[in-house]
Design a protein that fits this description.
Length: 171
Amino acid sequence: MPAASNSCTMRMTFADEPKPVSQSAITGTCATPSAMLWAAAHELGSGSTALEIGSFQGRSAILLARAMAGSDGHVVAVDPFVEDWKFGSPHTRDLFAANLDAAGVADRVELLAEYSTTARPRWDRPLDLLYIDGKHDYWTFTDDLLWAAHLPTGAPVIVSSPVDLVSLGQD
C-alpha cells in the first residue's frame, strides 16, 4: 500500500459528492491530509457548523462543505484576503467565490472577510468543528485556538501547519 499523501494537491472526488470537482485545479496547499478533514466533517451531526480559519482560494472550504452536505451542515470561512505576496490579495477573494460557485457549495459557505483574531471576540454561535490553517505564527495560532471555546466537549480541532517554527525562538 502506498504511503498516505500529506498534500491536498491531488484530485479528490468522493462517492457521495453531488458532482466531482478537481481540487487540484484550485491553487493552494493543505498539510492536513484531505481524507482526515473529510472524515471529521462527514461525521458531524445534522445542521453542524465547521469554522475554517485561512481560506485562500477555497480548497478546504469546498471539501468541508461537500463532506457536510448530507447533514445540512455549513462552513464559516474566515480570511482577511490581505494584499501580500505570501497570502494572496483581494483578487484571491474573487477566486475563492468563483471556486465555491463552480463547486456548487457557495450556499453552504459563509465568508467572514476579516482577521480571525478580530472576529473571535464578537463570535457568539456554537461550532462543531474547528479547522485552523491561517497565519502560521505562534501568536496568531495560539489566539486561533481560543475559538475552541465555542465547541462542545470532544469536538474535532484540526490544525494544518500550526506554527512558524522560526517564531518559536523569538521572545
